Q: What sequence folds into this?
């Protein structure tokens, strides 16, 4: 049976200080070259994608040299990132305002739900609503942000194929604290004690099964 967390995963976020280098690193590890995603207007970022299943994918994201530096910091700590790594993940959601409200009653703050968009290389505009990834920082990247694609096509349908998400787990110096926050938002993610906050995805691809951190 598929673990509950795999059904909840919308996408994993692999951040890189240089997108092309990040794409090359994932290709070397997994054996699949990510397809171009698109620019995030006003956010100073662009991405590339690999499908991990029919409704989940790996997002490789980095600064966009074709956009001016945004007034606000780029997401996922990209401005200070030195080496590429798996920084966080997004969970599927359909009523984000209710998710945020319910989480608040249990002591977990997700902030304001905001819209986003990007245009695929074929010209198709994708739109979504998301909770702010920065609002989950108390979980050191282990707490997911939530995303609702609404009427847009899911990005996994046009992303490079050939990889499958097999598992997702995490390590943290205070696992019980993180587990309490995860349970408050209805997310099932195994968290064990470790020296640092680490998200660990097991991915199967042409080069076999690998762990991405």
A:
């Amino acid at each position: 049976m598929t673990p509950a967390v795999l059904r909840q995963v919308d996408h994993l976020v692999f951040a890189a200080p240089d997108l092309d280098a990040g794409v090359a690193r994932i290709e070397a590890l997994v054996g699949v070259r990510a397809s171009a995603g698109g620019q995030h207007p006003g956010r100073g970022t662009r991405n590339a994608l690999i499908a991990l299943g029919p409704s989940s994918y790996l997002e490789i994201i980095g600064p966009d040299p074709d956009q001016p530096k945004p007034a606000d910091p780029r997401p996922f700590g990209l401005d200070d990132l030195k080496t590429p790594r798996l920084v966080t993940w997004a969970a599927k959601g359909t009523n984000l305002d209710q998710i945020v409200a319910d989480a608040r009653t249990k002591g977990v703050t997700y902030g304001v739900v905001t819209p986003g968009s990007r245009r695929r290389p074929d010209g198709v505009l994708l739109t979504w609503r998301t909770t702010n990834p920065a609002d989950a920082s108390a979980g050191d990247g282990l707490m997911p942000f939530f995303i609702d694609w609404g009427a847009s096509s899911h990005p996994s349908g046009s992303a490079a194929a050939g990889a499958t998400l097999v598992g997702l787990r995490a390590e943290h110096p205070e696992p019980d604290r993180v587990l309490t926050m995860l349970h408050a938002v209805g997310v099932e993610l195994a968290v064990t004690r470790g020296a640092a906050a680490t998200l660990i995805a097991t991915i199967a691809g042409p080069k076999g099964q690998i762990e991405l951190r």
Observations:
- The mean pLDDT is 93.
